[in-house]
Amino acid sequence: MIVPGTEASALAGAAQAIAAGGLVAFPTETVYGLGARADSDAAVARIFAAKGRPSEHPLIVHVADAEGAAAFAAEISPMARRLMESFWPGPLTVIVRRREGMAAAAAGGQDTIGLRCPAHPVAQALLRACAALGVPGLAAPSANRFGRVSPTTAAHVRAEFDEHDPLRVLDGGACEIGIESSIVDCSRAHAVLLRPGVIERARIEAVLGEPLRERDDDAPRASGTLDAHYAPRAKVRLMSAAMLRDALALLGPQAELGLAVYSRTLRPAGARVVFRRMPDSARATAHELFAVLRELDTSGVALIWAEQPPDTPDWDGVRDRLQRAAAA
Ligand code: TXA
Ligand code: MG
Is 0.70 topped by the overall pTM? Predict the structure, then answer.
């Protein structure tokens, strides 16, 4: 059931459903989330079941503001505090040490917890309505089945789940950003970027006053950081413009492969190839990327050839998602 996220009665109903331990999908500025009350292990178990996600994969807990983070954190380190002050509300998740006995299921049993304060007005309204009912925060992974492309519209969310599933979806329009939040682990001595988003690495480093470290073997697990993730059904290949040109030339004009091309610089000849032009800016590409992958899937193609994005830091988030889609 899709309900308008801007309507007071729909929001009140959604908050009551969550307070009672149910699931509600809601919009954020990044992607749609599948939410349950984070302080109830039974409610959180419903998220893992609905997504088909292994229960040891930790979820992000969403809070209305920085004060809301205190309920879940053992302590907010100075690094985490600086990031929250600079980027909240917004598309940045901080990993901090978890308050003992709180949200163990949401954290996948780890002693850390991912916290995010979304900027989307519907998410904000829902978090505040939930808080008024005594719910301190919402555990919410992206509202897709495990390993698949994250949803950026209410219709995408509906398409992920069985038509007989009574899942309530608050409609907040198309997500402005379109790829998931940046994740920075602040639970150890040095900050580590676990997942790039649209906030450029240099901006995060400027706030931290030190370079972000790379992930190493004792970094926490993150399913969004598995090599193969964000996968459409079609097989994705990522190629340089030169490789793409050669491959298209080899195919010839009468290719009948069920092929789609997503490229900034090349437009394939021949009507049989489904073509989508990749925008010139990273932000515009992030905004449409998951919708384009879904659309190409729906068009029935078996192959998606995507052009490698530029090698500049503004493209880190998009490049990461395309690489993971291609690794699936
Ligand atoms: O933009 C977003 O972050 C979206 C919206 C809905 O807020 N949420 C999202 O959630 O992308 P999800 O569950 O699909 O991805 C969350 C990522 C996962 O890769 C998870 O493993 C990681 O965050 N994560 C969560 N808590 C963690 C923790 N304590 N330690 C390490 N990684 C964690
Ligand atoms: Mg996800």
Answer: yes
